[in-house]
Amino acid sequence: MSRPLHLVDVFARQRYAGNQLAVVADAGGLSTEEMQAVAAEMDYSETTFVTGPPEDGAWPVRIFTPVEEIPFAGHPTLGTAHVIRTHLADGRPDDVVLDLGVGEVPVEVRTVDGDETLWMTQQPPEFGEELPHADLAEVLGLPEDAVDPDWPVQVVSTGLPTVVVPLVDRAAVTGIDLDPAAYDRVTGDRAAKNVLAFCPDPREDANDLADRVFAPFYDVPEDPATGSSNGCLAAYLARHEYFGDATVEARVEQGHEMGRPSLLHLRADAGGDAVDVEVGGNVVPVARGELL
Questions:
Q1: Is 126-275 in the same CATH topology as 3-122+282-291?
Q2: Is the dihedral of CA 80, 207, 193, 190 positive or negative?
């Protein structure tokens, strides 16, 4: 039985940028083992499977890296929502809800700078332990003074835990040389396997931050655009008032070091009892065909 297959670039302003995603529609008859094999065959950071029609308004979706299933990831959420509203749902709705491993995640279409942008509301963030700056400097292959001493290194999760690391400038971000042994030591007994390093020194004046994300545990040495980890970053920025306020609106560039420039829009508000987090970006179709 053939199944529709869609390739899209997420957090991209043009084709062949951003983060690649394969979306398999009508995947309900596939076993977990078959889905994992397809994800390994595609060898993108994630592949998603729409396993049926919506149940109580939410589309059931499973997400796989090349080596395992994960409960949530950002660019697969936006990319899959784009495919659903464009090819599967009636009437191209402006609101799509995905039923993921972490629960229901709503996605809304808005216009930003004249472009149709998809926004997801992430799970309420959980703020975990703070880690020694020296440990993460070693992981990133940087001198200790490259990690900004004014801000904490902290584990944050909005569904997929991430170690958020503040760096002093873009030279530090571009100079990262990940140390696999140090990465294994720091992440080995922790749920947080993603490491996000950021700085307030972007390439483009219109942007606010530059970052990079590393996830070797998931067979993703570096990711060109990471919605889940940037959601953690948004929560971190608001919680610690990085820009001097508990409300954050930021543009983040990622992927330049990989030749896949990406742009992510972040919003977060820590002014109340809970921290609300949204991440947005553009989705660009690349190809479609059939999974045989």
A1: yes
A2: negative
Whether domain 3-122+282-291 has CATH 1.10.245.10: the reply is no
Task: Report the topology of domain 126-275.
Answer: Diaminopimelate Epimerase; Chain A, domain 1 (3.10.310)
From 41, 46, 129, 138, active-site residue:
46
Q: How far does the chain reach from its first CA to its final CA, in angstroms? A: 7
DSSP string, 225-288: --HHHHHHHHHHHHHTTTTSSSEEEEEEEE-GGGT--EEEEEEEE-SSSS-EEEEEE-EEEEEE
pTM, rounded to two decimals: 0.91
The question of whether 116 is a catalytic residue gets the answer no
Q: Calculate helix-pair angle for 180-187, 133-140, nearest 10 degrees.
A: 140
Q: Which residues contact 44 (CB under 8 A, 6 or more apart)?
A: 20, 21, 22, 66
pLDDT in tens, the chain (292 residues): 789 999 999 999 999 999 999 999 999 999 999 999 999 999 999 999 999 999 999 999 999 999 999 999 999 999 999 999 999 999 999 999 999 999 999 999 998 777 889 999 999 999 999 999 999 999 999 999 999 999 999 999 998 999 999 999 999 999 999 999 999 999 999 999 999 999 999 999 999 999 999 999 998 999 999 999 999 999 999 999 999 999 999 999 999 999 999 999 999 999 878 889 999 999 999 999 999 8
**Are the C-beta atoms of 196 and 178 separated by less than 8 Å?**
no
Q: Where are the domains of the chain?
A: 3-122+282-291, 126-275
